[in-house]
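Morning!

This is the sequence you dropped in the shared folder:
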Amino acid sequence: VQLVESGGGLVQAGGSLRLSCAASGSTFSINRMAWYRQAPGKQRELVARIFSDGGSTNYASSVKGRFTISRDNAKNTMYLQMNSLKPEDTAVYYCNAEIYSNYVTYAYWGQGTQVTVSS
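The structure's back. Tokens below.
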């Protein structure tokens, strides 16, 4: 599975951005997709995730109500709509996909896209 993110950039506080993650390869095997982010000097953290089975979603408390994760299966693309952005949302955002097979989890990552929110 190959993942390519796009859509990052510089935005003022209160603004919006939409990130995209295009998946290719064995996309039919993906069980879960997610967005993570990593700010300078901090650990990578889970932002939101979406499951292939049923489409259920989960969000970090810090983004709940502001970010929306979605997936277009026909396009093999996942999105993260980010509204009401705050300076603390500044980070490199990574796309992640997981495949569960025979009790083993295979994780795949994109190269990351920078999101910078100015105050």
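Headline: The longest strand covers residues 91-101.

More detail when I'm at my desk.
O.
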